[in-house]
Amino acid sequence: MVLLHALPFDGRMWSEADRAVGEKVIAPDLFGLGDSIVEWASAVVAMAGTEELMVVGCSVGGSCALEIARLAPEQVSGIVLVGAKAGVRPDPTLRDESVRVVETRGLAAAWSAYWEPLFGSAAHPGVVAAARDLALSHDVTRVANGLRAFHDRRDHTEFVAGWTKPLVVVSGAQDRTPPVSVTRSLGEGPQRQFHVVDDCGHYVNLERPHRLRTILADTIAAISGPA
Fold first, then answer.
1. Degrees to nearest 5, angle at CA 111 with 179 and 98
2. pLDDT score recorded for residue 57
3. Nearest one of 120, 104, 96 to 205, comparing CA atoms
4. Distance between CA 215 and CA 146 in Å, rounded?
5. What is the pLDDT of residue 157?
6. In Å, how far are 37, 70, 86, 113 from 154, measured between CA atoms?
């Protein structure tokens, strides 16, 4: 199982309990793996070797999960997208503005402007505070690199439409980026599932970790089949 983190975090976004869901798990830090999500995906596939992969990605990590599946479709047994979508609407103005805020005003200002508002209204204050500490522990350059990669990512709409293996889509009911109205259609069809997590925003694995771990365990069991 490959756990792929969101902005503005790293592999520590995934707890030990998350990692314990799978027998073999890697949770790489993406932002240092290259300047694009394609480069991240290539690096992750190289790390994994010839192992069969279930790729799990939150937000920009979901985009990386799709790139991995696109790069190594025979190796990937299933995809789980958390707060992520296939389509892209490029917004160079927002990209440049967000990078400018990070580089000139710092991560604390960017956290307040971009990432803290993504949590749901019922998120525990301690969870949000811990996430903020993790975000602010990073090097500004790495987060800026992650922002550029996210905004310049490829559109995977056609690829996902043709994907025939398991695809599980998980969205917080209060997520706005992307909203449930966008993600729902990705989880409809053969070999697909869609889960809405109530009282939750963008970061389901942080806000409702037990719910996501149940979904992951069920997905692994379904892919593995009867013993």
1. 75
2. 98
3. 120
4. 27
5. 97
6. 8, 11, 9, 25
CA distance 203 to 157: 22
Tell me, what DSSP letter sits at residue 89?
A: -
Half-sphere exposure of 18 (CA within 13 A, CB side): 23
- What residues form DSSP beta bridges with 160? none
Residues 102-124 have pLDDT tens digits of: 999 999 999 999 999 999 999 99
Identify the residue whose tokens are 């958390």. 82
In angstroms, the CA 143 to CA 114 distance is 12
H/E stretch holding 75: none
**Which H or E element spans position 49?**
none
Q: Is 71 exposed, middle or buried (0-12, 13-18, 19+ CB in 10 A)?
A: middle
Mean pLDDT of 36-61: 96
pTM score, whole prediction: 0.96
Helix (H, G, I), strand (E, B) or coil at 196: strand
* Buried-exposed string 6-20: b where 16+ CB fall within 10 A, e elsewhere: bbbbbeebbeeebee
Is residue 227's pLDDT more than 50? no
- What is the pLDDT at residue 224? 80
How many Cα neighbours within 13 Å face the side chain of 60? 26
Percent of the chain with pLDDT strictly greater than 90 = 96
Q: What is the mean pLDDT of residues 129-152?
A: 96
Query: Does the structure show a pLDDT above 50 at 17?
Result: yes
d(CA 155, CA 176): 19
